[in-house]
Design a protein that fits this description.
Layout: H1 7-20, H2 47-61, H3 68-74, H4 78-85
Length: 88
């Protein structure tokens, strides 16, 4: 099952992001489709959060996110991240 179709997986990702980046939001507040970065985002992630999050994703899921262009694409939304980690 693709990651974006697995609500339990997406909730786990949201919890991972919130804990790794020390954000004061609940998983229910985080949209699956809205941007994860910027002031308009509930998460309001920045470049330091991206580094922290990429290391945590590697630790937990064994997925390496090293290329900056790839990071920007993968971190556009929870759905995009979920599909990258679990493509099928």
């Amino acid at each position: 099952m693709r990651g974006s179709q697995d609500n339990e997986f997406k909730t786990a990702l949201k919890k991972l992001i919130i804990e790794a980046c020390d954000k004061d939001v609940s998983p229910e507040e985080v949209s699956d489709t809205e941007p994860m970065f910027g002031d308009a985002s509930v998460l309001a992630l920045d470049s330091m959060d991206a580094l922290q999050l990429s290391m945590e994703i590697q630790r937990v899921h064994g997925v390496v996110l090293a290329d900056s262009k790839e990071l920007r694409r993968v971190f556009t939304s929870i759905n995009a991240l979920a599909d990258y980690i679990r493509p099928a």
